[in-house]
Write a structure and sequence with these properties.
The protein has 332 residues and is α/β, with parallel strands linked by helices. The protein folds into two domains: 2-126 and 270-328, Medium-chain alcohol dehydrogenases, catalytic domain (Quinone Oxidoreductase, Chain A, domain 1), CATH 3.90.180; 129-263, Rossmann fold (3-Layer(aba) Sandwich). 31% of the residues lie in helices and 27% in strands.
């Protein structure tokens, strides 16, 4: 089968198209005819070689997010049959094969049936960001109806999903963006209040929207110095959620306010086989919410073929994307 592989880790030039062996079905797996994928920051980090603990052995097929059609079902799989349309974040990491190929062998526990009301391209951008947002908001943050939730990066991959899931749960959602265009998008996704962080400081919007008390839950999808701003924006006894905590910070605000800090790293449940079923369960719930019309994926206008994986990675690294970057198969 055709695939995009990397023989070494480094800049975007490491991708090359080649022929590799088609995966052989195994117990507990399904073979997917791949239709689409997406590029996430973790895919870029793996390609660059900066997260060796999560990186597959070389030569490797990268990318975790996938949507496609079940070609073959292994022994022990009773929730999928050949012809089913599925989606999931099912590989491209340590011990697994990736999505940038004609076929992908995936642990059935990491998959769910694709929502019927969206395209393969739309479905392929959902898995990693939806699982991440769900785990942070509900498993770690216990977000509930009526809470004031601040989500940083409201039009980013995880952020745009987090807005919609928090609204689905009944929270009052505030989000930060960098432009009027992104503000309009965030409002269309259901955000109650949109804050342009280039025009208002943390002190100003905390005073304006919470009378200086702070937000009960702050979800930081940005990282770096923005995590410090999240500590600043949180209420006393509040909760800060992060998906980007590979940095050094002064934790004094956590002590002063009695804050809780929770970090989500969804790849752990892929690498740890015992936890994989949780991902499939979350994705099935995500599919139901999508079919209810309460969650819609935000796809950037630029579309790439698998053979343009280098260009897709460059575009993500440019910081110009709004929502998620999609890739569709190069091989029919």
């Amino acid at each position: 089968m055709k695939a995009m592989i990397v023989d070494s880790y480094g800049d975007v030039s490491v991708f090359r198209e080649t022929e590799i062996n088609k995966p052989i079905i195994q117990k507990g797996t399904v073979l997917i005819k791949v239709m689409a994928s997406s590029v996430n920051p973790i895919d870029v980090k793996i390609r660059a070689g900066v997260v060796p603990a999560a990186s597959p052995e070389l030569p490797a097929v990268l990318h975790g997010d996938v949507s496609g059609i079940v070609e073959e079902v292994g022994d022990g799989v009773d929730n999928f049959i050949a012809g089913d349309e599925v989606f999931g974040c099912a590989g491209g990491f340590k011990g697994t094969g990736g999505a940038l190929a004609e076929y992908m062998l995936a642990d059935a526990r990491l998959l769910a049936h694709k929502p019927k009301n969206i395209t393969m391209k739309q479905a392929a951008i959902l898995p990693l960001v939806s699982i991440t947002a769900w785990d942070a908001l509900f498993e770690k943050g216990n977000v509930a109806a009526g809470q004031k939730v601040l989500i940083h990066g409201g039009t980013g991959g995880v952020g745009h999903i987090a807005i919609q899931l928090a609204k689905w749960k009944g929270a009052e959602v505030f989000t930060t963006v960098s432009s009027d265009e992104k503000a309009n998008i965030a409002k269309s996704l259901g955000a109650d209040t949109v804050i342009n962080y280039k025009r208002e400081t943390v002190e100003e919007y905390v005073e304006k929207y919470t009378q200086g008390k702070g937000f009960q839950t702050v979800f930081d999808t940005v990282g770096g110095t923005n995590l410090d701003k999240s500590f600043q924006a949180a209420a006393v006894h509040g909760t800060v959620l992060s998906i980007a905590a590979r940095s050094t910070h002064d934790l004094s605000p956590l002590h002063t306010k009695g804050l809780s800090l929770h970090v989500t790293f969804m790849l752990l449940k892929i690498i740890d086989e015992a936890s994989r079923k949780e991902h499939g369960t979350i994705l099935q719930k995500i599919a139901e919410i999508v079919e209810e019309g309460k969650l819609k994926p935000l796809v950037d206008d630029k579309e790439f073929l698998f053979t343009q994986a280098d260009k897709a990675h460059e575009y993500l690294e440019s910081g110009k994307a709004t929502g998620k970057i999609s890739l569709i198969t190069s091989w029919k």
